[in-house]
Amino acid sequence: WRNLNRFGDLARRIVGGDESAEDGAPDDRSGRHASFAARNTVPELAGVAEDFDRLVATLRDSAQSLRRAAEDNAHAFKTPIAVIRQSVEPLRRALPAENARSQRALTMIEKSLDKLDGLVSFARRMDEAAADLLAPNRRRVDLSALVERMAGGYTGLLAERRLHMRSRIDAALVVRASEETLETIVENLVENAVSFSPPDGGVSVRLTRSGPWAELVVEDEGPGVDPANLERIFERYFSHREPGRGMPEDEAAAHQAGAAHFGIGLWIVRRNIEAFGGRVRAENRPTGGFRMTVALPLAG
Description:
alpha+beta, 2 domains, 15% strand
């Protein structure tokens, strides 16, 4: 039983990214990974350790294949979209302005291209999210520095929307995760808050230590969410920007929503946070507005 516990501890350390190059194990940045077989000290479980290594290698290869396919497919679709978009411009200039029917047809083509372009980007994000769940990269990341840097990058957008940001970021909070994935999480949370905030409103970003957790809280002063939908906002394809799911069905709904939203941002947030051993919670603020709270375990 003690040997099984030791093997279980080893598995948790490897999966959690604790087996690093500092103690002789290969480092993710070199493209290699710590091995169950190399680290196992229980002779009776040597065969199991080798099987685990093969399983992990298969998962990592599958994740890499998904990422390559996502990039290749997006490039294959976006190239003809760009060609069609460029071809529409000379047609519009050549057509008489008074030919309303033809001008309207070109406008419909342009809007359809925008929608198709969004669908291609959406499909790529879905594939990349699936790959991240199969084999999430973990290393020590200074979450404090990352959040501070990203919060400072929204100055232009906030000024454009006539919004202000309040931030409180505790220093030196380090987690084990993928830096790129953490950037995506912070980006989704902050841009979500900005998009729902009224003019002259505020967005709050706080990163604090809460026991063994790093806790990131993003708040806005928008309309909040129907309490019946608080859990549904984490569902794939669900969007509360307009009635129903996914993309707006018509031009009026699209105008009301402000943009095409596919309802995957918060789904990606939850799936990635949970993959790193964290948790996420959504709630309406008692004084109005919306609050998203993300907690990640601090690195030892």
